[in-house]
Amino acid sequence: MRNLAIPAQPGAASLDCVHPQYPAHWEADVVLADGGTAHVRPIRPDDADMLRAFYSRLSAESIYFRYFGPRPRLTDKDVVWFTNVDYDNRVALIATIGTEMVAVVRYDRVQPRDHAEVAFLVEDAHQGRGVASVLLEHLRAAARERGIKTFIADVLPGNHRMMNVLRQAGYTAQSQFEDGVVRMTLDLSSTETALEVRLAREHRAEARSIARLLTPQSVAVIGASREPGGIGQTVLRNLLAADFTGPVYPVHRHVRAVAGVRAYRSVSAIDGEVDLAVLAVPAEGVLELVGECAEKGVKGLVVLSSGFGETGPEGRARQEELVRIARAYGMRVVGPNCLGIANTDPAVRLNATLAATLPGRGRVGFFSQSGALGTALLQRVAQRGMGISTFVSAGNRADVSGNDLLQYWEEDPATDVILLYLESIGNPRKFARLARRISRSKPIVVVKSRGVPGGHRAPVLALPDTALSSLFAQAGVIRVDDLVQLFDVAQLLAHQPLPAGPRVGLVGNSDALTLLAQEACADAGLEPRPPVDLGPRAGAAEFAEALRRVLPEVDAAVAIYMPPIPGDSREVAEAIVEVARESGKPVLASFQGQLGMPPELRVTGGPGDECPRRGSIPSYPAPEEAVRALAHAVRYARWRRRPPGTVPVIEGIDTAAAREIVTTALAGAEEREIDATALLARYGIEVWPAHVVAGAEEAVAAAERIGWPVVVKSADPEDVRRAGTVRIGLTEPAGVRQAYADLAALLGPGTPLAVQRMAPQPSVPVVVGVTQDRYFGGVVTFGLGEVTARLLGDQAYRLAPLTSEDAAELVRSVRAAPLLFGEYGYQAVAVEALEDLLVRVGLLADALPEVARMDLDPVLVGASGIAVLGARAVLRPVTALRPDVGPRRLR
């Protein structure tokens, strides 16, 4: 076995330099177009031997296209020149797989100084894998940091691959033919097309990397012993019991056979290829075995072993080394400390898990971060009679995450519904972006625990859990409270159509149960129609007639069948299924108290295929549980009908000037709090001036200057949240003097007071804010400024930037929103002006990550517009790249 020692790669989260001349974020693990992985980093002087070896594997054609002539070998002078760069005027990035260089891309600065010549060289065996395109993304990012705006490439006419890489990058490209060479000029300015290209490539690559894991042609179980109940033997027996369609290779150093299958002493001793390796050995032995798998050419790993990040610093270091070695050799890792993976596709039949009970074939993809819960979760799915398409238990989620599975399931024609049990979110902003897109076609149902296990590579979010719920809602994600609700909602979405509205019909043979269902509908915000009570002796004909009468007038129906004397219920079930099919509307049941997909209510493929198909009726033990699941579906369907919207382009916004304000304010400071008036003005937001005064007569003079009526208030921003710190409606000097005296006595002599123009009345006070979360990015907050709303924490959140639809939903998502629309005796206000303010604040939050926090408090919304009466901002330098910024990389 070759020496697998790999130079330690620095993390990409810090901007600190790990090399004297280039920053750490210039290094990255990347997923290639075929789903394999590689490492990208700048070239270094000690790469000389690696460069020579790389060059020796190139074909004469590749060399000719690069150098426009034969160049059979590199001289020592060439090697020194190519490996010694200054990381400014000359930069070269290489892609490595294992200990081998497989590609290099470089630029050399030319005149004018914001131009550079660029060239690629990819080893023949790795051409067509997307190596050049991902290297170009990283080289472009490095060049932009160094002030380069344009790449120039001279390409031979026959070098179609190179020309396609440049043309398909999404940047503005021009070309001209002269002296037998095509000169291509690439404008490196960011474009929407370039972003779309990058995200599309990321999507395809990550989806394929998961497909390689879930559709292996062969599996090795390393650590499969003869010990009954052992982890390795359990996985092996489950693979065999599922009748996996490819060869299964037990690996054990000391036995000749396990479970009647020939065993191999090592992975390298296996005769055939190995696509997937399942590791079930003590943690101390995992890293060596990963090296053997790399040598064998294994494409993916499932590490069941515990003893990694969940055990403390030593285990965490072992976990990071596991991921580093695996990615360096092109492998993705599920786990460690996980349950395994499964695929019910008849062409695969993979059960590489510790769960002996695997649900049948279905339309639900299921991701669980918890290994311990995984077996119980799969048992619950099977007990309900639901099926799954694929299952992944990520355990410590050291590499493969829920985001990767979202990319895969979006493309998977066998998956209609996505279930996620999350204990952490590794890249929250990316999750929100993916979920918002995927939820348009496939529902995503999530249980998110409030704690984060120690083994996870997970960020600590600065946002409260209520904010996470708001951001899930913005992305169309259905968040439920517990695992019971997760499966309740899943069995509805997987088998019934989405409701077109909130109207619900209730048909049953129990008056008490239908009334409970009616009350549950009202509590859930649905619109129940008067229940139809058929009486305890109702049979199939009565249920069919009632449902046919009710369904045309509603958007969904709940059928409740609870006979006083149990008997043959098949005819009633068949009637409910048939009427539901005819109507094309969702129908749920509480059918004899059964849970899941009872055989009587299933639509199947016929004898031998008992898995429920589309059109099957989900059943719930109690009508209230059916209604609760339906309410989630109604809200999701309403979100899906809403236009996705686009971020408005608003004229008059001067982001460059706003950035200059921030840069000047932060000069030499780690944090600074400022009055945000000037900053907001660059975004077309006027903050009404408040004139600080030192005495009653100064207050009168200020009032005379700005015009009556006026208010006298505390100038301390903290006092905005206190009742009684403002005197409004002052129309003459005596009133101002009295107000000044009252507040000075109330607040104390050291509290500054201010005079401000009186906003039109009546109005509703609201609070608009910005929070920068390192992982989510800019988040806009909104709530009413009433004391009660503040005390109850009645706030809502949306990820910046906001579409017009986001702003409208944000305003309406707080519980006190009716006060803005003329209810409870309030006058209706200019909600459109408030929504415009939220959009502008969202643009600022997205463009200026240095604005760590900003509060517009209070903002008065009246019948004719808004008045921002105060605004403060806390600025901090950006010390780390946001996870979704820059070229593609694995996190």
| Structure annotation, total helices | 25
Please outline the major beta sheet. Answer: 8 strands, mixed
Helix content: 25-40%
- Which structural class do you get from the secondary structure elements? alpha/beta
Number of DSSP-assigned strands: 40
With strands numbered from the N-terminus, the spatial order across the biggest sheet is 3-4-5-6-7-8-10-9
- Could you tell me the strand content as a percent range? 15-25%
Point out poorly predicted stretches. Answer: 1-18
Q: Whole-number average pLDDT? A: 92
The radius of gyration is 32 Å
Query: CA-to-CA gap between the ends?
Result: 29 Å
**Rough shape?**
flat
Q: In brief, what are we looking at here?
A:
The chain is 33% helix and 23% strand. The protein contains 25 helices and 40 strands.
Q: Would you mind describing this structure in some detail?
A:
- This protein is of the alpha/beta class and 891 residues long.
- The chain is built from 25 helices and 40 strands.
- The protein has an 8-stranded mixed beta sheet, sandwiched between helices. A 7-stranded mixed beta sheet has the order 19-18-21-20-22-23-24, sandwiched between helices.
- Helix 4 (131-145) links the parallel strand 7 and strand 8.
